[in-house]
Backbone:
């Protein structure tokens, strides 16, 4: 069993934008970025880039990838995979669901796992 | 939109300017008093060719004067940026997260690579392509790959971007000054504001620039162009004879009264200049622009004298290297690229409220006359290049140039603010060089040693 968190309406995050759920709110201690990707879906990754220090929520969303605003590493929003240098380590994914009550985030639950 | 305060927010970074206490030989200064005779109207040609004088100009003219950076309409949201130069210093102009316009030296603090290589765009960070140091919109150094390998006292604040400490805006025009104690922009402009307002303040909504920046290179010293736009209506009938023939409605050339038009030339102690014919029916040349304007409304807004003079046909320079032509909305910077080369950067300025088709008509008229291949522009550039090309000859270089037209003609005429001279006069040129030589002979902010 894992915790879930209602993080507001889907209208809060425009397509191509992201929102940060701070570590103390999401319970993991690490900021989580929730992205509204250009395929229309919502995805969540640890907000801090795995290369150095940068907020991926500040990055550029293209399709279902995010480009880090600092050194331009790219991550797959679905799987967290580091797609190019200088990042080599995948970003951790978190499960997000769109429900009638809005967006629900499952911190520490991998995107492809069952809640 | 606002600008940075009169002090840099990266004081620790800016303390690195001149930090290494350079030997004096690197910054040798020449006394230029004998090279500019502003009373007698004589100029020595070495001021256009000498490399020591050129270096001194970078330090004592460009590093302490208000220099045009960009137009406010180029920045709409945080992260919008534009890259330009102040003298030969590369500059990033950007809007920070609080919507302040800020300007930084476009050189990475690590090993000096040009930090931002794009002409303009939008970004979240300025990241160096060499080793990846990354700076945010406030100039702060945010990321240093492998930072743990630096000494313990490595302080990111000290290695943030060098910031232009003084950025001020006059009616949409953004200017920067490296001297944080410089006299405020508006005071430096003084009466020049009246002449600028005739272009910048026709529309209550203000102005905007269209499209990108046109850039071209010329052989010639930057002062030849700046001085001409300050003071030289004299060349119009000769240099631009063919263009005037083509544009005259009859095709047989302008009427005698147009050639012999009266007019005034504003002369500023701070080196600015603006000249314009005066006529009760002064009008804009591009037909759709002329038809768009309600001249009665403009008379109410700007006053009769502005509408009959500096609002339309004329020329102007804001010292040292920003010039404009109100009739076609050309605003431009003469970037110095060595004593012998100018890079011209020109924007098309229009009123915000103009309908798109009128804006476009003005843009086309601008391109046809004063774009890089405009029928007037080419005439001017050709003359400056011809001056420069031969000026290194030993004898040539020591024969003074003549700036004697209208000596003693400057006066307050009761109509136009400040001192003015005749339309055909070298008065603003003489004061341009007088101010230049004063700055050249006066130590600047970076030369005053801090007291211990
Ligand atoms: S911090 Fe994200 S790529 Fe370097
Ligand atoms: S030169 Fe910019 S990071 Fe090294
Ligand atoms: Fe000209």
Residues:
């Amino acid at each position: 069993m894992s915790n879930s968190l209602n993080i507001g309406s889907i209208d809060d995050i425009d397509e191509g934008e992201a929102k940060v759920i701070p570590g103390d709110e999401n319970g993991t201690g690490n900021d989580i970025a929730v992205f509204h990707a250009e395929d229309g879906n919502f995805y969540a990754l640890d907000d801090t880039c795995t290369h150095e220090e940068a907020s991926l929520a500040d990055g550029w969303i293209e399709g279902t990838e995010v480009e880090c605003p600092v050194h331009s590493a790219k991550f797959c929003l679905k799987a967290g995979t580091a797609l190019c240098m200088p990042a080599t380590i995948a970003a951790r994914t978190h499960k997000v669901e769109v429900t009638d009550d809005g967006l629900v985030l499952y911190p520490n639950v991998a995107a492809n796992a069952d809640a | 939109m606002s600008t940075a305060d009169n002090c840099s927010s990266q004081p620790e970074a800016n303390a690195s300017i001149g930090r290494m206490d350079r030997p004096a030989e690197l910054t040798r200064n020449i006394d230029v008093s004998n090279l500019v005779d502003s009373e007698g109207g004589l100029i020595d040609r070495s001021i256009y060719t000498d490399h020591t004088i050129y270096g001194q100009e970078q330090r004592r003219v460009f590093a302490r004067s208000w220099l045009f950076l960009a137009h406010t309409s180029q920045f709409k949201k945080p992260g919008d940026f534009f890259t330009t130069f102040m003298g030969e210093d590369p500059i990033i102009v950007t809007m920070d997260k609080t919507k302040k316009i800020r300007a930084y030296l476009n050189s990475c603090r690590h090993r000096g690579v040009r930090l931002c290589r794009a002409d303009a765009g939008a970004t979240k960070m300025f990241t160096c392509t060499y080793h990846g140091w990354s700076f945010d919109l406030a100039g702060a150094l945010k990321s240093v790959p492998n930072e743990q390998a630096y000494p313990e006292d490595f302080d990111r604040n000290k290695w943030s971007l060098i910031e232009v400490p003084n950025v001020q805006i006059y009616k949409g025009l953004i200017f920067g000054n490296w001297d944080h104690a410089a006299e405020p922009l508006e005071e430096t402009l003084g009466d020049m504001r009246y002449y600028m307002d005739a272009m910048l303040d026709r529309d209550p909504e203000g102005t905007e620039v269209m499209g990108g920046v046109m850039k071209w290179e010329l052989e010639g010293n930057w002062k030849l162009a700046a001085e001409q736009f300050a003071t030289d209506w004299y060349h119009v009938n000769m240099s631009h004879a063919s263009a005037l023939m083509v544009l005259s409605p009859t095709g047989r050339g302008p009427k005698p009264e147009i050639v012999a038009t009266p007019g005034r030339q504003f002369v500023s102690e701070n080196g600015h200049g603006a000249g314009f014919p005066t006529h009760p029916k002064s009008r804009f040349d591009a037909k759709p622009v002329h038809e768009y304007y309600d001249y009665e409304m403009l008379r109410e807004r700007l006053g009769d004298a502005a509408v009959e003079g500096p609002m339309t046909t004329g020329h102007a320079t804001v010292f040292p290297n920003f010039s404009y032509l109100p009739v076609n909305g050309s605003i431009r910077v003469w970037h110095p690229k060595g004593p012998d080369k100018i890079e011209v950067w020109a924007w098309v300025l229009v009123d915000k409220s103009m309908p798109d088709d009128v804006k476009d008509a003005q843009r086309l008229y601008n391109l046809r006359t004063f774009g890089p291949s405009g029928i007037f522009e080419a005439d001017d550039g050709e003359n400056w290049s011809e001056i420069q090309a031969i000026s290194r000859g030993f004898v040539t270089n020591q024969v003074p140039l003549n700036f004697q037209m209208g000596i003693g003609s400057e006066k307050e005429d009761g109509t136009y603010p400040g001192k003015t001279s005749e339309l055909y006069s070298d008065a603003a040129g003489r004061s341009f060089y007088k101010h230049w030589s004063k700055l050249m002979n006066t130590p600047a902010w970076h030369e005053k040693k801090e007291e211990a």
